[in-house]
Amino acid sequence: SHDTVSVIVAEPDTTPPTVSSLSPEDGATGVATTTNIKLTFNENIQRGKGYINLKSENGTYAGSFNVAQSD
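Structure (tokenized):
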């Protein structure tokens, strides 16, 4: 008798995720400095290594978050 073995090869996802919504919304005013920032992506993402860098509207560095430690 012969056994059948199926091999399925998944193609790597080479398209990076994009932000589909922000909270507070882009351009919001009067937002308290203690407000949490929420990013929603267009696909599920996996926690890994790296940082999310925040910049002001004029491109000035405003801070960063370690993605391995942020919720």
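The chain has a mean pLDDT of 85. The first strand starts at residue 19 and ends at 23.
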